[in-house]
Known about the structure:
single chain, 208 residues, 91% helix
Amino acid sequence: RKFAWAFSIISLLCVGLAIYTFIAMRDITAMASDLRIANVPAVVDLAAMRYNSNSVRRAELALILCAAPECSAHYRQVRQESVDGFRAAAREYEPLITAPEERAIYQQFTSDFASYVEVTDRAIAALDAGRPDEARRMLLDPAEIRQHSDVMASANKNLELNVKEADEKTAAVMASSTHTNWISVVMTLVIVLISIVIGTQLNRDRKS
C-alpha cells in the first residue's frame, strides 16, 4: 500500500508538471506566433510605406532639376513606382491593424500622403505641359514642404507604435519562457527529492 501511495504521488506531480508545461508553452507559442504573423509584417510594411513616401519626394525634386529627357523619364518612373509601392504596402498593412489608436495614426498617415500626392500630381502635370516654373513653385511651396513633413511624422509615429508593441510582446515571450524554465527546473528537483525520500523510506520499511 505504501508503494502504491508513493507511486501515485510521483505520478500526480509528473502529470501536474506536464500540464503546466503544456499550457505555458502553448501561451508562449501563441505570443510568438502573433509576433511573426502580425507585428513583424506590420513593421516591414510601414517601413516600406515610409521609404516610398520619401522616395516620391526625392524623385519629384530630381525631376525639376532634370535637363535631359532620359533623366526626366527615369525619375517619373521612380516616382510612379514609389507611389505604387506605398499603396501596395498599405494594402498589406491594413488587415494587420488591431488597435483603435493604431488605426487612427494609420488613417492620418495615408490621408496626409494622399493630400500630398494630389498636389504634386498637378505639379507633374504642369511639368509635362511645359510649365517648369509653375511645377517648381508648387513643389517648393512651403505648404507642400510642411505637408510632406507631416507625412513623414505620421509614418514615424505609426512605425514607432508598432515597434514598441513588438518589443513589449518580445519581452513578454522572454519573461514567460524564463519563468516556465525555472518552474520546470524547481518542480523536477522537487519530484527527484520526493522520489529519493520515498525510496529511502520504502527501503527502510522493507528491511525492517
